[in-house]
Amino acid sequence: MLKFRRKILQASAGLLLAGPLFSQRHALAQTPACDDSPTPRQIEGPYYTPQTPRRSNLIDGLPGQRLLLEGRVLSADCKPVANAIVDLWSCDSEGVYDNTGFKLRGHQVTDAQGKFRFETLVPGAYGNSSFRRTPHLHVKVQAPAAPLLTTQLYFPDEPLNQRDSFFNPALLVKLQQSGQQAKLASFDFVVPVQAKG
Ligand SMILES: [Fe+2]
User: Fold this and answer.
1) How far is the CA of 24 from the centre of ligand 1 (A)?
2) Per-residue DSSP letters for 167-195?
3) 136 CA to middle of ligand 1, Å?
4) Residue 121: inside a domain, yes or no?
5) CA of 178 to the centre of ligand 1 (A)
6) I want to staple 85 with a disulfide (CB 3.0 to 4.6 A). Which of 26, 97, 142, 169 is the partner?
7) Is 111 found in the same domain as 40?
8) Same-domain status, 69 and 17
9) 109 Cα–ligand 1 center, Å
């Protein structure tokens, strides 16, 4: 009997511990995969270089805080878009763009689940006292049969966001983890096409 009661107590304690986690999972399950708003467009800026290499690691040995950015390209009805080109470019940790080569530049092609994944560096802020850009990533997404989407992504933990006139909270990445060495972030692009199937 004592053994049985101990087992019941252990089971109850387990449920108590699992409670918050279960609630979180339940809450996550209620969150839709995406809403039907296409990702907002933003200006290309002056530093785009075409014909980037197809690769996932853009770092090329540069120093700085690493950034792992992953996500999906989704149609307006939240279905994965395969074979979309996601072209990413940014400045380095000091706010400097490589305008002669392809450092911190590259593109990926989404897989059958619409997924892409980049390893790059967290970009620095740049500008001067009258015009300052908060840290951001530039992106072009070319999904099959969709207009080209040119936009920028931002980080939620940047104090300069509110002082940058380009900043749009709809373009914030979701930070999964943030440490001194690395950030892990995600973003899903929604493009105005209807996926097949
Ligand atoms: Fe920029």
Assistant:
1) 36
2) --GGGBPEEEEE-SSEEEEE--EEES-PP
3) 6
4) yes
5) 22
6) 142
7) yes
8) no
9) 22
